[in-house]
Here is the input.
Amino acid sequence: AQSVTQPDIHITVSEGASLELRCNYSYGATPYLFWYVQSPGQGLQLLLKYFSGDTLVQGIKGFEAEFKRSQSSFNLRKPSVHWSDAAEYFCAVGARSNTGKLIFGQGTTLQVKP
Amino acid sequence: EAGVAQSPRYKIIEKRQSVAFWCNPISGHATLYWYQQILGQGPKLLIQFQNNGVVDDSQLPKDRFSAERLKGVDSTLKIQPAKLEDSAVYLCASSGNRGGSEQYFGPGTRLTVT
Here is the structure.
């Protein structure tokens, strides 16, 4: 079955510290991979995506993610977290087809301590 | 460029009542999605339209949910009658024609069923 697992439901980091959010997926083939961020009361905003090529992808707001095929993982990282990064983060996979359907993980809530 | 518009932003109804949500996608986007996001979970696809045709409605509870996209532009999602477990945020997203294209999300409608 196709699924996305985000093992950490809640993470707290200090401002200025580094961040890594984990994402593992189960899929029949290599899917498209996405990270979205959702602030309270807002819709989802795309941070970055992986379709093919370089397995280290850069996104907006200083985020990056690395696709590791052998581990079926697509972890999100940021070297120095800002207070404004506090939000909920979703990893998603999408089919390499015209349907474009996304399957989301359950999300990781990031809290940033001053 | 205007984003995905949704209305209303909030709705409170009693169980067994009906409710309708409206979505206007980004101009020119052929694909439109409705997702249901229950508190503490990631979004789950309810229905996907390509122009005015349904591509995937496998997870739509068809005994109470219905959706239409007349003229291939804006869309309406209806629930009749509502149940307590329908309390959630309903997100609309749109994307271009290519498979795996980025999905742009609206702000969502938060539904509370009492």
